Amino acid sequence: xxxxxxxxxxxxxxxxxxxxxxxxxxxxxxxxxxxxxxxxxxxxxxxxxxxxxxxxxxxxxxxxxxxxxxxxxxxxxxxxxxxxxxxxxxxxxxxxxxxxxxxxxxxxxxxxxxxxxxxxxxxxxxxxxxxxxxxxxxxxxxxxxxxxxxxxxxxxxxxxxxxxxxxxxxxxxxxxxxxxxxxxxxxxxxxxxxxxxxxxxxxxxxxxxxxxxxxxxxxxxxxxxxxxxxxxxxxxxxxxxxxxxxxxxxxxxxxxxxxxxxxxxxxxxxxxxxxxxxxxxxxxxxxxxxxxxxxxxxxxxxxxxxxxxxxxxx
Amino acid sequence: xxxxxxxxxxxxxxxxxxxxxxxxxxxxxxxxxxxxxxxxxxxxxxxxxxxxxxxxxxxxxxxxxxxxxxxxxxxxxxxxxxxxxxxxxxxxx
Lengths: 314, 93
Hints:
The complex is a heterodimer of chains A (314) and B (93).
Chain A: E1 2-8, H1 14-27, E2 32-36, H2 43-47, E3 56-57, E4 63-67, H3 70-88, H4 97-101, H5 110-126, E5 132-136, H6 140-178, H7 196-216, E6 220-226, H8 230-245, E7 252-258, H9 263-273, E8 281-286
Parallel strand pairs in A: 1-5, 1-6, 2-4, 2-5, 6-7, 7-8
Antiparallel strand pairs in A: 3-4
Helix pairs in contact in A: 3-5, 5-6, 6-7, 8-9
Chain B: H1 2-43, H2 45-48, H3 55-61, H4 66-78, H5 82-89
Helix pairs in contact in B: 1-4
């Protein structure tokens, strides 16, 4: 299974190109799932279907579509975390325990984590069912934060594991000299096998390493979509910097809405954007009529770059 | 009579042993508590305005950190008298 992430500034045509790519890959005989992570979904509008949190087959083809509801994912994510708390503090269920954790919904980063968890779930459940999963992502900032999360989380977890190991080492020494219990009669875990905290940390690390390997791996590709204008150029430059820093595989960028009458601007923007990224290939996609009801069908074949291998941006 | 004396001698040596072990481990225990406190401070950093790990990491670990929470609480309560604690730990008269 291969994955493709369409990223870029809002309004550059990520959804249109993601839909076109998904359609063309399906036409070439692949089983394709197109998933939208953009809170302002367009996938359903493009295919004239009412989509939801569950995948839906498009007109008896091998193309499936899904719009991830980030709010619902956040709610599921919080519910999963709350169930762990409730499991441990089961005696507190008699009081209105839930309401205290409702606030977690507003804690910074929950939306990104919910998106990542939901992405991870799709990859885990659907990798056998599809040849390609095409992700239509939210605009630049949120996408970069989502893609950076595995690395950020792993570095935090590593730090916590190190401190936890030191704690266990001290506890082991004390246990050897004084016995099993501390001065208050509590039995503390002193080996990694019996310490739930370090076990949880290891489990979390394994989970995020797997996601990181997947998004950095040869079967993933990040695609940047941009337009021939100054704002799009500047944001795409930042996006490329972010993708490079995160060591994500990228080898094609799509210059969308190219108007032949403005060839000077088109070439100028491309030249500026490719400074420092000599190995990246630019694919031009001409301006299409968006009032056309089937804009996912386009003359330009945009799937050529998804069938070969990938490399990093530098 | 002999049995009673033997019992007292045994008790004396056992108490000596315990006192000795307590003295030996007091520094390690102090370090352990400080590390536990630090671990909790890192996890709960957002309450104090310092950078903290992603909230879900803290939320997932929290149910297993009852002991560490007590340590954090005790350290916060005794924080005004750190000097006395240090003096006690290093056995300074």
